[in-house]
């Protein structure tokens, strides 16, 4: 039996999940439920960093009724601290995939952002890059060397953070045997 729990917010009880012989059992906010593995229709894995936790991952599990459970790899501990739960999260997500595969599941397995959201993000980044190139050219033409250097440094930092986010969240499908390692801690 594999268990996983995390606190989605500072206020409130932990969300608890358990992989049982019957299915995925969950408990939070005074409610409980059991989703048989045959009722799970989709899993989406994604990378969702936040300011206090750069290595934050998320699994969205959808059942036949269209209800969704979000399972996150970090847990709130104090007003300023989110604790990673990397090993426990990884074990739970891999275990869930193994149980679904063993049950003969036909769940749709997707990774990253949705195609529309990903396209919108790429378009926004292209506009931002165009504006940054324009500012850089202007700074170079008027001889504003510190400003140009600042823009180059900012662009490098932006490319590092946003590039990693977009690379990990590339929309794609995967199989039970080939869980994307970039979307697991």
UniProtKB/TrEMBL annotation:
UniProt superkingdom: Bacteria
Transmembrane segments: 116-141, 147-166
Organism whose genome encodes this protein: Bradyrhizobium denitrificans
Keywords noted in UniProt: Membrane, Transmembrane, Transmembrane helix
Protein name per UniProt: Bll5862 protein
């Amino acid at each position: 039996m594999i268990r996983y729990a995390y606190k989605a917010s500072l206020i409130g009880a932990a969300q608890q999940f358990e992989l049982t012989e019957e299915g995925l059992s969950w408990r939070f906010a005074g409610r409980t439920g059991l989703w048989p593995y045959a009722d799970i229709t989709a899993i989406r894995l994604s990378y969702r960093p936040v300011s206090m936790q750069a290595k934050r991952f998320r699994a969205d599990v959808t059942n036949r009724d269209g209800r969704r459970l979000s399972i996150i790899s970090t847990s709130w501990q104090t007003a300023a601290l989110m604790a990673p739960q990397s090993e426990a999260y990884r074990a739970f997500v891999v275990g869930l995939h193994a149980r679904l595969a063993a049950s003969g599941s036909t769940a749709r397995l997707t990774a990253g952002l949705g195609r529309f959201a990903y396209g919108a993000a790429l378009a926004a980044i292209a506009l931002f890059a165009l504006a940054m190139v324009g500012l850089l050219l202007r700074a170079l033409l008027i001889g504003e060397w510190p400003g140009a250097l600042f823009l180059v440094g900012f662009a490098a930092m932006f490319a590092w953070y946003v590039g990693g986010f977009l690379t990990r969240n590339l929309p794609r499908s995967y199989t039970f045997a080939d869980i994307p390692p970039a979307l697991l801690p």
